[in-house]
Design a protein that fits this description.
6-stranded mixed beta sheet, 16 strands, Rossmann fold, single chain, Laminin, 17 helices, alpha/beta, 476 residues
């Protein structure tokens, strides 16, 4: 995508409250622009009208037409209700009238469902979005006033990875962390929170003061060669990558965070304290990480062992060379459900899992992820130290009654990059806050990036498990 937030905000350069069209407008950049409007019952009727006024004022500075900016809009409550698509109207007057005709839904707050519709349907060519090879920026502006009743992190990340720039506007008591989970980066440009609906109009002047008047260097530089995103600076530009990718050494192309080649061995706690249901979540967690890795003959190889009172190799590093093969093997794992001999598992990993006989390759980074939920019945320090001294990078994920001292003995240094803990499976999503995105091309850091994404996925899986267990419980 050739244009980022700067091109968009320049369209908003005049103060929408004053509607002073005598000012020189910013350079108009064609957009595929979609409003995603919270229409839940928590929004009072007069505040709902203020949102409609905000939308109408905002589009005054868009040049709307089939070959200019196309505008679509949906509102959502408990369900998604598309009002008009990107191909419905060809001029500003029709869009304005459609906004005025909107009726308040006054139901729930299914923000995640709305984002999913935006990604899967609203920005398709069938609904009026222009082909990706035309490099028309796809913008979604989400306006919400409450806590979502569904999960938003994963679907918002998928939408951003698909090339949709998301602006998240919160009104009132909206959790800022939720807005940041929705909006694109940098958050200072894409995430905004106002105290009430009377203040929402002030955002247009905020956009003006921030960016109007600056030259769009990406637009001026026709051949900027950025693979994903071009971002203008004062006198030049820089390239950025979509979430889940990182900038390569050439400063222009992008690589998936999981593209780092490594030999990765999972060491999974299968003790009785975990329980069958949580063991299934761990399997889902592992498979989610596998989805994000470049598993191939020349790419990343994955092995896995499960431990309880004994240690069992589920599959070796040399056994599978496709993600599908690894995932099927993980899904077939049978829960052991006995004791917790973490030390024995580390010994087995050190002595066998990274051997040439089991598929380990020379001069390839060696990484192990240890997952445990309780105190080990044997010593962990000896074999963890030997593994680290041999060059294996050790990550450890502790849940529940896992002992901090044991986790520190297992993890590589520094702890803040290699040790993650949550009080229980319900709170495992909190690990996400401790994990850091990968900024440098390093297989170890790329794994951290993947773990962040999968911690979010585990939140979703855990939530699904709760609903399956308690089907009669309604979402508040």
């Amino acid at each position: 995508m050739r244009f980022l937030a700067l091109g968009f905000f320049c369209l908003l350069c005049c103060n929408a409250v004053q509607l002073d069209r005598r000012q020189n407008p910013c350079k108009a950049v064609p957009l595929d622009f979609y409003f995603v409007i919270d229409s839940s019952r928590s929004i009072r009727p007069n505040d709902y009208e203020k949102v409609k006024t905000f939308i109408i004022n905002l589009i005054q500075f868009l040049k709307i037409g089939p070959d200019a900016t196309r505008v679509g809009l949906l509102q959502y409550g408990s369900v998604v209700q598309p009002e008009f698509s990107l191909k419905t109207y060809n001029n500003k007057a029709e869009v304005e009238q459609a906004v005025r005709n909107m009726e308040h839904l006054a139901t729930g707050t299914m923000t995640g469902l709305a984002i999913q519709y935006t990604m899967e349907t609203a920005f398709t060519e069938e609904e009026g979005a222009r082909p990706a090879n035309l490099h028309i920026p796809r913008i979604a502006m989400i306006v919400t006033d409450g806590r979502p009743q569904d999960t938003v992190e994963e679907v918002a990340a998928q939408a951003r990875q698909a090339g949709i720039q998301i602006f998240a506007i919160g009104v009132g008591r909206v959790d800022m962390n939720t807005l940041k989970a929705i909006g694109s980066e940098p958050h200072s440009e894409h995430v905004h929170l106002v105290a009430n609906f009377s203040q929402i109009e002030t955002l247009i002047s905020v956009f003006q003061s921030k960016l109007c008047g600056a030259e769009d260097m990406c637009a001026e530089t026709v051949d900027h060669r950025c693979e994903h995103q071009c971002v203008s600076t004062a006198d030049s530009y820089i390239c950025r990558c979509f979430e889940g990718f990182m900038l390569a050494e050439d400063g222009e192309s992008c690589k998936k965070c999981g593209d780092g080649v490594m030999d990765l061995v999972f060491v999974i706690d299968g003790s009785k304290s975990l329980g069958p249901a949580n063991f299934e979540l761990v399997k889902q967690f592992v498979n989610g990480i596998v989805d994000s890795l470049d598993i191939s003959k020349k790419g990343t190889h994955v092995g896995l062992l499960q431990y309880s009172t004994k240690v069992r190799t589920e599959f070796t590093l040399g056994q599978y060379t496709t993600a599908q093969g690894v995932k099927q093997a993980v899904s077939r794992m049978q829960y052991m459900g006995r004791g917790s001999m973490t030390g024995s598992a580390l010994r087995h990993m050190f002595e066998f899992s990274f051997s040439a006989k089991e598929g380990a390759r020379p001069n390839i980074p060696r990484v192990s992820v240890v997952f445990t939920d309780g105190r080990s019945q044997d010593d962990v320090s000896e074999w963890a130290t030997k593994a680290k001294n041999s060059g294996i990078t050790m990550y450890v994920l502790g849940i529940g009654k896992a002992i901090e001292q044991e986790l520190r003995e297992i993890a590589s240094e520094p702890d803040e990059k290699h040790l993650y803990y949550a009080e229980d499976f319900e709170k495992m999503g909190e690990i996400t806050k401790k994990l850091k995105l990968c900024f440098h091309w390093d297989p170890h850091l790329s794994l951290t990036c993947l773990l962040e994404a999968m911690s979010k996925k585990l939140e979703t899986l855990e939530s699904q498990l709760v609903h399956e267990t308690c089907p009669s419980e309604s979402v508040l």
